[in-house]
């Protein structure tokens, strides 16, 4: 009997403490629940918007390809450029490379603007970003100054990455074309100093150095 009374008193005390805790913190509790609901609703809305955008971009990209097949290249180009400025890493890049592959833009400066826009407004993984940087350098090597080309390739030259030897070859060949053999030698020799590189790079660098030496 005494045990039952004790248990009853304990339950009443426990409930009393919970009520007091609730009364003291109900504003905080309701605020937390409200914030949680808002966050969940926001995340759900964001994911819905992202999914709808992906679907729309996909449809627009397909539309551009259909217009190309039907000979409406100007219409296709306008669609592809709009996709690029949507800043979607997947479809913006696909649209840009489709423009390049089909030479839909004849103005090289406009192409460089699109390169810059892609690199500045999209979050790419490091490997793909380096690929884009190299392609931009390769495309623009005959259009820009020496200092501009060195600035573009700086991210590739200042770290160990897949595209560094490609950039070094590009710069070596660039300076050869400008008749600046001393500068070219510097970049070719850097290739020879890289360990575990494909033999093709070593052979190309040695070949170019031999040509310079025998001139």
Descriptive report:
It is built from nine helices and no strands. It is elongated. It is mostly helical and 215 residues long. The longest helix is centred in the first third of the chain and has 68 residues, at 2-69. The protein has helices spanning 2-69, 73-84, 89-101, 108-121, 126-140, 146-157, 164-177, 181-192, 199-213. Helix 2 (73-84) runs antiparallel to helix 3 (89-101), helix 4 packs antiparallel against helix 5 and helix 6 (146-157) runs antiparallel to helix 7.
List the helices and strands and how they pair.
Layout: H1 2-69, H2 73-84, H3 89-101, H4 108-121, H5 126-140, H6 146-157, H7 164-177, H8 181-192, H9 199-213
Rg, please? 31 Å
Strand content: under 5%
Quickly give the structural class.
Answer: mainly alpha
- End-to-end C-alpha gap: 112 Å
Shape: elongated
Low-confidence sequence ranges: 1-10
Number of helices: 9
Order of helices and strands: HHHHHHHHH
The total count of strands amounts to: 0
The main pleated sheet reads as: none
Short description:
This protein has 9 helices and no strands. With 215 residues, it is mainly alpha-helical.
